[in-house]
Amino acid sequence: GVKPGLPPVLAGSHLDTQPTGGRFDGVYGVLTGLEVIRTLNDHNIQTQHSVEAVCWTNEEGSRFAPAMVASGVFAGVYELDYGLARADGDGRTMGEELQRIGYAGNEDMGRPLHAYFEAHIEQGPILVEEGIGIGVVTDAQGQRWYELELTGTESHAGPTPMDRRQDALLGAARVISLVNEIGLAYAPVACATVGMIESHPNSRNVIPGRVFLTIDIRHPEDAVLSQMDQDIRDGVEEISARNNLTGKLEQIFYYAPVPFDRSCVDAVQASADQCGYSSREIVAGAGHDACFIAQAAPTSMVFIPCVDGISHNETENIKPEWSTAGANVMLNAILDKAGTV
Q1: Quick check: 137 and 282 in contact, CB under 8 A?
Q2: DSSP single-letter state for residue 167
């Protein structure tokens, strides 16, 4: 930017993934930010505000829960010490691992931004099924994550009568069914998922005495999300009592539904129109770094389709023309906000 004192326009996403994640979730947004900067440099286009690319650490929350830790620290949602202290299943912290691989920085956390844009695959089927090239993201669903531990009594699978068992896995099965029913009850935009389960002692002839599982609920209206939360709590309590189990339910992650900045949304829409791409407004069903950055700066997102709407899967794929369209829309939206000389 020709005016170094002005806050920058930021573009980016994340590179971390899921255990069986694909090649484009997050990666596409980081590369698009870099491509926008390369295009500006190649064509000697000068802007009032500087344009910067960013790669956020631990967006997925797969190894270090919760999700979106780096963007959360930047936006002031989390304290830095909290972020660095997040531990994986083996007890290694994110701070220790960043030091080990040489990625621990010394920059101050958080600074003023003029705007933030994030390009991303939709991770759902709407755009590809409707044959639309660009999703203009107006809002993001709110989310709540929970960890639940159900404790019963380990006992022999043979001599223990069925009516005397304290089977933690049976209780977990009923919780999983409950979670699915809650998601369906608030359809079509609600989502409710049990994504992880660990049964102990995990032996074929022992009635499980302890089960750990995770719950993820989402909805674009905070009031409905709160009602889903209450339904989860009431259901877990009832299932625990009915199965003579002890249930410990802890919410570990929450953010309210996020309305993105109208001027940034309008910049994306105008860019799609200028480029001649088909587009529609869309709500982000997944969590993204943009959801936290929106608390610190004007923000919006650009969605492109993905093949069959599949993501968090090694078969995740996009087409080159979709990638190009998203990058072109990002370029013009960023120029709108950064201002040309």
Answers
A1: yes
A2: -
For CATH 3.30.70.360, list the domain ranges present in the chain. Answer: 143-255
Q: Strands 142-151, 279-284: parallel, antiparallel or unpaired by DSSP?
A: unpaired
Contact call for residues 114 and 9 (beta carbons, < 8 A): yes
pTM assigned to the model: 0.84
Phi, psi of 141 (to 5 degrees): -60, 145
Spell 273-311 as b/e; 16+ CB within 10 A means b.
Answer: eebebebeebbbbbbbbbbbbbbbbbbbbbbbbbbebbb
pLDDT tens-digit profile, the chain (341 residues): 999 999 999 999 999 999 999 999 999 999 999 999 999 999 999 999 999 999 999 999 999 999 999 999 999 999 999 999 999 999 999 999 999 999 998 888 899 999 999 999 999 999 999 999 999 999 999 999 999 999 999 999 999 999 999 999 999 999 999 999 999 999 998 999 999 999 999 999 999 999 999 999 999 999 999 999 999 999 999 999 999 999 999 999 998 999 999 999 999 999 999 999 999 999 999 999 999 999 999 999 999 999 999 999 999 999 999 999 999 999 999 999 999 99
Among 215, 219, 221, 171, smallest CA distance to 193 is for: 215
Structure tokens at 45: 């286009």
CB 287 within 8 A of CB 167: no
- Looking from the CA of 168 toward its CB, the CA atoms found within 13 Å total 25
Strand pairing class (134-140; 155-156): unpaired
Q: List the one residue out of 266, 264, 286, 282 whose CA is nearest residue 274.
A: 266
User: Where along the chain do the CATH 3.40.630.10 domains lie?
Assistant: 9-141+257-338
- Domain 143-255 sits in CATH at 3.30.70.360
The hierarchical CATH code for the domain 9-141+257-338 is: 3.40.630.10
